[in-house]
Amino acid sequence: MAGPEPLEWDGPVAPPDAPPLSSTREAGIILALLLGLLLGALDNFIVATALPNIAEDLHDVSGQVFVVTGYLIAQTVAIPIFGKLSDRFGRRSFYLFGLSIFLVGSVLSGLSQNLNELIAFRAVQGLGSGAFFTVVFSIIADIFPPKLAARLVGILSGVFGVAIVAGPLIGSAIIDATTWRWIFFVNLPVGGFAIALVLATMGPMRPSTNVAHPFDALGAALMATWVGTLVFALVEVSSGWAWTDPRTIALLGVALVVLPFSLWQEWRAADPLLPLRYFRIRLVAASSGVNFLRGAVLVVVVTFVPIMVVDGFGGSVNLSRDVLYAMMVPMVIGAAVSGPLVTRFGYRAPLVIGLILAIIGTYLLTQVPTEPPVLRTSDGFIPLGLAGALIPVGWGVGMTFAPTQLAIQYSVSKDDLGAGTSLVWFLSNLGGAIVGSLLGAYQLGVFKSLDLPFPEAFAVSIRNVWWALVPIAILGLLFALVVSGQLPTTAGEDGDSPASPALMG
User: Quick one: how far is CA 186 from the chain centroid?
Assistant: First the structure.
């Protein structure tokens, strides 16, 4: 079978000129997209908070980690598949489909009678969130002019920072007020309102072209296999499985065998799931590198800061959550300002600034002493050094969201917009899962090797993790320096929405 056709690229793709949307429809569309992102981003953090209560109620503590990892694996697998399907069959259809599947999974999760059922239904939720997650940003690129799209991408990307802190708060509040089952049932009114908004404000968003080639079903199956087995194995290793465990060897073996076949299929397919030819575009390749490494930094910091506060410093679980505010508030602000910076200075400037801040922050984390200076409060203490280091990390990570998202979206063909958008979140998820799991296993090994008191051993082992993050952030900066280019311009870039009749119907 011959390889793919030579790459033809005529520059950035911008939305076509057309009559603007009314401000009411614009607001309705944006709110619907925001609600969907919030549901998907919040869910895992809310559920993680309630896991002890869930395990106690269902009388099974052995497999509770799979309640979280099942969702993550299903979401990661679903992102590229549904991104591509939205290119072929329309954005709105798959946004509604994803939300509907997510809500069905929520109901079934809330009705679960044992842990195995809950794990399976959480995977259904993950499939749904993977379907609508990536479509949100494709819709923005489809119907809003680049300058407005840049601002919206920045603002909506900040949702992830909000979710990391708000998720545990919401989860705790629900557990205190009622049963864990309402963690899932509460999704219904929010998701239902989002669906109603979409139906009221957004037309069918028909694809601009009819694709003659069949869907890359073999590519989807191969990708789902290697991603699922790889992520599952790494997560379990970070949770305690040995690298020599037969289960670890078997899962990693499957992933390593299937991966080259998956890449070969994506190269030869007439209409591939993730078009590898786009990696020949320097802007796409460099932005993809930043996305992978950004996901790694974010997941590792969010995972290990609470562990360091509780097990290393002797703080409370509530304190560990509160310390994350030092990272998440700047992250939300950094994401919001990055969009306007892209419109004025191009893709590279906010990326470089953000990654320099991330490098500074990760280095400062390595300098936090095992017995940090603290600010005493009536509720306990605040580790000042740790909180201070998290500020530049959060701000820097936040500033990378919009530039990479926009750079990739406006570099690919309009017929591959969903596939290009899915690449952003697929690589970010994959980076977080792979690097986070490897560093989790590394930290556990260092901890076991130290002949120190328990708290100090934990703090020292996590400091080693921070040292590993510094070169990861530096590598991200090197990728960022390769990024170049500006947002495309359109006649509607003064703020009018250039949504075409073919899209809005």
Answer: 22
User: What CA–CA distance (Å, rounded) separates 465 from 443?
Assistant: 6
Which two structure tokens, joined as six digits, stand for 388? 């201070």
397-to-18, 126, 301, 335, 392 alpha-carbon distances in Å:
35, 24, 11, 8, 8
Give the span between the Cα atoms of 75 and 209, in whole angstroms: 27
Q: Does residue 429 contact residue 75 with C-beta atoms inside 8 Å?
A: yes
CA distance 371 to 452: 14
Burial classification of residue 386, based on how many CB atoms lie within 10 Å of its CB (0-12 exposed, 13-18 middle, 19 or more buried): buried
| Lowest mean per-residue pLDDT among 212-221, 293-302, 379-388, 474-483 | 379-388
Burial (CB count <10 Å: 0-12, 13-18, 19+), residue 385: middle
Give the residues across from 376 on adjacent strands: 381
Helix (H, G, I), strand (E, B) or coil at 382: strand
> Which residues touch 500 (CB under 8 Å, ≥6 apart)?
15, 16, 18
- Beta bridge partners, 374, equal 383
Which structure tokens are listed for 330? 């700047």
CATH class name, domain 23-209+273-504: mainly alpha
Is residue 347 within 8 Å of 368, Cβ to Cβ? no
Cα distances (Å, whole numbers) of residue 407 to 242, 252, 295: 40, 33, 17
Q: Compute the distance between CA of residue 127 and CA of residue 175 in angstroms, rounded to an integer.
A: 25
pLDDT value of position 353 = 96
pLDDT reading at 36 higher than 90: no
Ranges of CATH 1.20.1250.20 domains, the chain: 23-209+273-504
Q: Are 422 and 82 in contact (CB under 8 A)?
A: yes
Q: Are 136 and 326 in contact (CB under 8 A)?
A: no
pTM, 2 dp: 0.84
| Straight-line distance from the first to the last Cα atom of the chain, in angstroms, rounded to the nearest whole number | 39
Contact 399, 350 (CB under 8 A): yes
Lowest mean pLDDT: which of 85-89, 252-256, 408-412, 474-478? 85-89
Task: Kindly report the average pLDDT of the chain as a whole number.
Answer: 84
CA 71-240-115 angle, 5° bins? 40
Is residue 257 very low, low, confident or very high in pLDDT (cuts 50, 70, 90)? Answer: very high
pLDDT at 377: 60
DSSP strand E in 226-277: where? none
Contacts of 345 (CB under 8 A, 6+ apart): none
Question: Residue holding tokens 């929520």?
Answer: 106
Longest dimension (CA), the chain: 70
Q: How far apart are CA 71 and CA 127, in angstroms?
A: 8
